[in-house]
């Protein structure tokens, strides 16, 4: 039976299709009763699952069409970011930000609002200017207003291509600093460079590592009270930094430094589970203190926790909708029975801050509470009804949200 990347989800779908043309996608969708898109299998929950059929667009013809005048690129939906970022760079362009993993697919990352870091950087979905999607009757529909449709959890159809806004190519220097006290100016540190990530294992009231991704045309930022790492580091204590992107201030192209991990290596520390909660930036310090209060429960089942920032956007189902955000990410050990009670406890601690979860990771928030945190959800329901009136693309998880 097919499983997700982490191995904690076994897909119930009777078949996984790998069409090689958009026409084949159209035929599959038109002839199916229940069908969902399957990306690079990085969802840690049942978001991609269905009792019907799954379709991967990874075998569709490769499309990388750069429009230099418009500063945009049209890419096939199944491409991984590592598979075209260098090509953009060669033509003088870049994406404004990338996730920690360059191994994820464009469509899968964008429909779940996956992100990198930076107080002025939006999620990966915020770069989407338009997309083509196969809807329930097998038609190809071009979406030119992404606000309601990009972060769609697979509920609108099968995305076949996306058009992304670009910026001029740029270079980054990456530094790692260690030993930041949790009672430091955390928001100041997070806003100190183009992209900043904080890593802690919650074994103490300290941030283990501060990863600073600094544009080469900006002054170097050194977090006060930290010590520069004396060599390359991996975020997870005890892991080899071999598969991490170059550090120690060695300049490189943005696509070589913004991800934490190199595309030619498998980044995982082994089997793992992941959870991520998003809180408003103004609540971040209080939220981190709330987690610190239960670190004795968190640390034993944790590999590492990462803290990042994401700029507000206008996408209806985005966890960053109209809220500058700090994300608190947890990479857990691969023990579901031990982890789930702690996920619930973390959710309780963060409840006063109305956290929004990463859609593709493990969370325990009552559906009615979750629905209340997305004010444009009624508009999204109407969009789903217009493109998929019979609920062909809806599964149990999406159905709970839309009910």
UniProtKB/TrEMBL annotation:
Residues 9-169 form the FAD-binding PCMH-type domain. GO terms for molecular function: xylitol oxidase activity. Its EC number is 1.1.3.41. Keywords: Oxidoreductase. SUPFAM superfamilies: FAD-binding/transporter-associated domain-like (SSF56176). InterPro entries: ALO_C (IPR007173), FAD-bd_PCMH (IPR016166), FAD-bd_PCMH-like_sf (IPR036318), FAD-bd_PCMH_sub1 (IPR016167), FAD-bd_PCMH_sub2 (IPR016169), FAD_lactone_oxidase-like (IPR010031), Oxid_FAD_bind_N (IPR006094), Vanillyl_alc_oxidase_C-sub2 (IPR016171). It comes from the Bacteria. This is Xylitol oxidase.
């Amino acid at each position: 039976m097919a499983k997700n990347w982490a191995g904690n989800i076994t897909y119930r779908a009777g078949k996984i299709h790998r069409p090689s043309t958009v026409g084949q996608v159209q035929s599959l969708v038109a002839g199916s009763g229940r069908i969902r898109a399957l990306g690079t299998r990085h969802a840690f929950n049942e978001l991609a699952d269905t009792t019907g059929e799954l379709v991967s667009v990874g075998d569709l013809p490769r499309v990388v069409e750069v429009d230099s005048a418009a500063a945009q690129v049209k890419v096939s939906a199944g491409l991984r970011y590592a598979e075209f970022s260098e090509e953009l760079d060669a033509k003088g362009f870049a994406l404004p930000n990338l996730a920690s993993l360059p191994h994820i697919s464009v469509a899968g990352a964008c429909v779940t609002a996956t992100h990198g870091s930076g107080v002025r950087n939006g999620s990966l979905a915020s770069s989407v200017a338009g997309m083509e999607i196969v809807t329930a009757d097998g038609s190809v529909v071009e979406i030119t207003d992404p606000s309601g449709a990009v972060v769609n959890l697979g509920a609108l159809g099968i995305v076949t291509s996306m058009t992304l806004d670009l910026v001029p190519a740029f270079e980054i220097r990456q530094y790692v600093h260690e030993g930041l006290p949790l009672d430091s100016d955390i928001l100041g540190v997070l806003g100190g460079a183009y992209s900043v990530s904080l890593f802690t294992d919650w074994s103490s009231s300290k941030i283990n590592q501060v990863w600073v991704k600094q544009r080469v045309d900006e002054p170097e930022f050194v977090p006060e009270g930290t010590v520069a790492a004396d060599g390359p580091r991996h975020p997870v204590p005890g892991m080899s930094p071999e598969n991490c992107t170059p550090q120690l201030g060695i300049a490189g192209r943005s696509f070589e430094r913004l991800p934490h991990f190199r595309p030619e290596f498998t980044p995982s520390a082994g089997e793992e589970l992941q959870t991520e909660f998003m809180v408003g930036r103004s609540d971040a310090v209080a939220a981190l203190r709330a987690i610190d209060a239960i670190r004795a429960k968190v640390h034993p089942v944790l590999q590492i926790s990462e803290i990042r920032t994401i700029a507000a956007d206008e996408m209806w189902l985005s966890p960053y909708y109209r809220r500058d955000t700090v994300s608190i990410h947890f990479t857990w050990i691969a023990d579901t029975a031990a982890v789930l009670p702690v996920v619930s406890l973390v959710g309780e601690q963060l409840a006063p801050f109305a956290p929004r979860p990463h859609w593709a990771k493990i969370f325990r928030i009552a559906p009615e509470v979750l629905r209340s945190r997305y004010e444009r959800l009624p508009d999204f329901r109407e969009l789903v009804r217009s493109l998929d009136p019979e609920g062909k693309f809806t599964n149990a998880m999406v159905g709970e949200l839309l009910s």
